[in-house]
Design goal:
It is built from 4 helices and 6 strands; from the N terminus they run ααββββαββα. Strands 3-2-1-6-5-4 form a 6-stranded antiparallel beta sheet. It is an alpha+beta fold.
Length: about 140
């Protein structure tokens, strides 16, 4: 597992201060995930938060699980890039993800795009992400939206 840095400890403290983990779904966030899925034409969209051990889904469209191990989470790669949308057009061609169990098994991720959920302090708590089981690219207007 990744070593905790001072910045990561600060990020985790801020995440815990929001008291969002393991709370019921919220209509507004479910609608946000639905909008992201529609804009990007993907079957899966998530509002996810990353703690020490897992990626937990506050909102989810097109997937049944509530969480995945942190080490398998695509969005953990956004934690230190607060101003970038992470786009992985084909994880089979990306060394970071080729052997990921979410790529080699269900849901067979072949496309991922995640926008960081950044706090005023600059910490990334998770992502709003879209996922597909086929390769694709996002248009600039989709990234912006």
């Amino acid at each position: 597992m990744e070593e905790l840095t001072l910045r990561e400890e600060e990020r985790l403290q801020e995440l815990k201060s929001y008291k969002v983990l393991d709370t019921p779904p919220e209509k507004e966030l479910d609608e946000l995930a639905e909008i992201a899925s529609a804009i990007c034409d993907t079957p899966i969209a998530l509002v996810s938060f990353v703690d020490e051990k897992r990626q937990w889904f506050k909102s989810k469209i097109g997937i049944e699980v509530n969480q995945t191990p942190r080490e398998d989470a695509f969005c953990r790669h956004t934690l230190n890039r607060p101003d970038e949308v992470l786009v992985v057009d084909d994880p089979l061609n990306d060394e970071r993800f080729q052997s990921n169990p979410l790529v080699t098994g269900a849901p067979y991720i072949r496309f991922y795009a995640g926008a960081p959920l950044k706090t005023d302090a600059g910490n990334v708590l998770g992502t709003l992400c879209v996922i597909d089981n086929k390769t694709r690219q996002l248009e600039d207007h989709q990234k912006k939206a």
